[in-house]
Automatic annotation (TrEMBL):
Name listed for the protein in its UniProt record: Thioredoxin-like fold domain-containing protein
Boundaries of every Thioredoxin-like fold domain copy: 6-138
Lineage top rank: taxon: Bacteria
InterPro entries referenced in this protein's UniProt entry, alphabetically: Thiol_disulfide_DsbA (IPR050824), Thioredoxin-like_fold (IPR012336), Thioredoxin-like_sf (IPR036249)
Pfam families, A to Z: Thioredoxin_4
Organism the protein comes from: Ferrimonas pelagia
Amino acid sequence: MISPCEYIWIGCPYCIEMKPYLSELMTKHESLALILRHSTKNEIWERDARLFYALDQLNQLVYLDELMEFYVELRRAKTPPEQEDFNRFFSERGLDHAEIMRIADGADVNALIDVTKAEMTAIDLKSVPTLVVNGKYMVLYDNDLETNEQRMALAEYLMALE
């Protein structure tokens, strides 16, 4: 069985809602690890993907949930996050925003961005959160399923197909 891959955006409240359900799903499948990818759907999401991948390169994804909550709160206040917001967020956690941005603009993150774009094109991914199961099936947040429980039941079913 191939590990499932979730595509997210750090500013997506639905991605936050899915997290506990995905954690429960992965607890049932301890031999698998959830692969996280950050969508590069547009210019802003690519900027955010660079932050995500830089944090991953620094082994600092421990702050991902807090960053997502922070970002969503700014969006709800009708304040799009700017670099000074990210600087404040990272500084409050003892992280060097300039170092994060250096890595975000580096060759390793550029390669990850290219891979993510190619994957998204190959599977025609248009929205987040999207869970890709067994490398070919997509469980979409915006499909006909109404609850996260139904989405996870579909993911379980698709995982069992392989």
